[in-house]
Amino acid sequence: ERAAITPYQQQGISSTTMNKFLSLLVAILAIGHACAFMGTPVLSQQRTASVQHTGAGSMEMRTRVCDLLGKKANTKARVVTFSHKRIHKTQQVNLQWKRFYSDDLGRKVRLRLSTKGIKTVNKMGSIDAAAKKFEVDLTKF
Predict the structure, then answer these.
(1) pLDDT tens digits, residue range 50-63?
(2) What is the pTM of this model?
(3) How far apart are the first and last CA of the chain?
(4) Do residues 105 and 139 touch, judged by C-beta distance below 8 A?
(5) Helix H or strand E encompassing 112
């Protein structure tokens, strides 16, 4: 009896070549499926530091620290109740967003300063003098 001829054999493709092709295709699909859930992005998008985005989509969580003085929260504060229990609490820094005009940069800079930091800038006369004293790079703001 004659063996059945497949459509691929009519086109001149042997069964071993077809088996190799199918196994290669299955391997590629398996690797692609495994990489899809690995957590590493296929296309990495790199942001340039010079581009500044504004609006709700560009929100970035920052720590509650004064940009000028470096003041941060007091985590060792205690409250004494009527029954004399001592309860630990956190005293946050009074931070305010403030714009100052920088003569060195020729533009306004927006900083998140504590109220003591604002008083320090007012006392020193300009944000440039205060930034120079506390070694703060205003080009980042």
Answers:
(1) 555 666 666 778 88
(2) 0.56
(3) 85
(4) yes
(5) strand 107-114
CA neighbor of 70 nearest in space, from 104, 109, 105, 120: 120
pLDDT digits (tens, 9 = 90+) for 31-49: 877 766 666 555 555 555 5
Separation CA 75–CA 61 (nearest Å): 20
**In this structure, is the dihedral angle defined by the CA atoms of residues 116, 117, 120 and 121, taken in order, positive or negative?**
negative
When computed from its CA atoms, the radius of gyration of the chain, rounded to whole angstroms, is: 32
Closest CA to 127 of 91, 94, 101: 101
Do 66 and 117 meet the contact criterion of CB atoms below 8 Å apart?
Answer: yes
d(CA 24, CA 17): 11
Per-position DSSP letters for 65-109, written without gaps between them:
--TTT----EEEEEEE-TT--EEEEEE---EEEEEEEETTTTEEE
What pLDDT does 33 receive? 74
